[in-house]
Amino acid sequence: xxxxxxxxxxxxxxxxxxxxxxxxxxxxxxxxxxxxxxxxxxxxxxxxxxxxxxxxxxxxxxxxxxxxxxxxxxxxxxxxxxxxxxxxxxxxxxxxxxxxxxxxxxxxxxxxxxxxxxxxxxxxxxxxxxxxxxxxxxxxxxxxxxxxxxxxxxxxxxxxxxxxxxxxxxxxxxxxxxxxxxxxxxxxxxxxxxxxxxxxxxxxxxxxxxxxxxxxxxxxxxxxxxxxxxxxxxxxxxxxxxxxxxxxxxxxxxxxxxxxxxxxxxxxxxxxxxxxxxxxxxxxxxxxxxxxxx
Length: 294
What we know:
The protein is built from eight helices and twelve strands. The protein is of the alpha+beta class.
């Protein structure tokens, strides 16, 4: 069975000289772009609907059924200082959050959503009513720090940023498009189709990729400009982060784990947690599970 091709007309490549490399099948779009990065312009993209050897954060396997999942990698080469480079994964999560919201827009006002107030208290579920949705309705699509995108508390997209040999950054995304409920890779996963999005996998992929690339590139320009523009980007990221205000379990690289309240994101992009004794600290790397919302 052949894998549906991505339409080439709408997927945005918005940098002069950038290329859009649409592949019918590949092992890893991140690996492909990392290898080619020195010869490509900023904004170049490698994309497929059939990735066979994808990896996620913390070296996890990313399961991607052929023809039902978008895998794409974006090359970012910009004059950012070390602090702002550290914000790229978070910026990518916020951009994908907006792209997924747009794809689900017809479903956002579904009557069944309004009739389900329990969503705000589900583990790993959204519970912050201050997003772009209605003020009396919790936002369905949020980011779990640093950059997993959740719909109704279930993961629809993972993001992995890697530094290329020339110092540029490859931002890789994997989005579950049309995987049916009985074929989702984990019990805590979802897909755009399961969440209510209409359309074929190629059409959904094209729309999501266009919005994502545009969102990341606009944010990178603002970060590079500094000042109020950069601060607006950081504020935007914080507004989309559903981890802020949640009770979380944080598994740390040394194997230890801590339960704490997530209270913010500091200026370096670290999640700020408040321990049981009331002390606060920033954590740069960790695996977060939402336990409940404060």
